[in-house]
Specification:
single chain, five-stranded antiparallel beta sheet, 8 strands
């Protein structure tokens, strides 16, 4: 495991701010290899922004960058993102 790598749970608060709901239990599907996994299991790298990578193939699933009062989200590496339902 890379010393700079975290799992998706490390950005739970940020994802909640963006989507308005718990997203670490949502299921994401990688557009490159087709792997489906909970968002909490993706590999997260922090730097000037946040990069989410597929734990299976390493492809970039998404990027999140905050500049001034604006948050930019790019999830083009996800084929699907399905929030969990029925959890309270």
């Amino acid at each position: 495991m890379d010393a700079l790598m975290l799992d998706g749970n490390a950005v739970a608060g940020l994802l909640h701010e963006i989507f308005g709901t718990e997203m670490t239990t949502a299921t994401g599907t990688c557009a490159f290899c087709g792997a489906s996994m909970p968002v909490g299991a993706v590999h997260v790298f922090r730097g000037a922004g946040v990069v989410l990578r597929c734990p299976r193939c390493g492809s970039v699933l998404g990027k999140i960058v905050t500049r001034q009062a604006e948050t930019c989200v790019d999830l083009t590496g996800l084929r699907a993102l399905v929030p969990s339902v029925g959890l309270a």
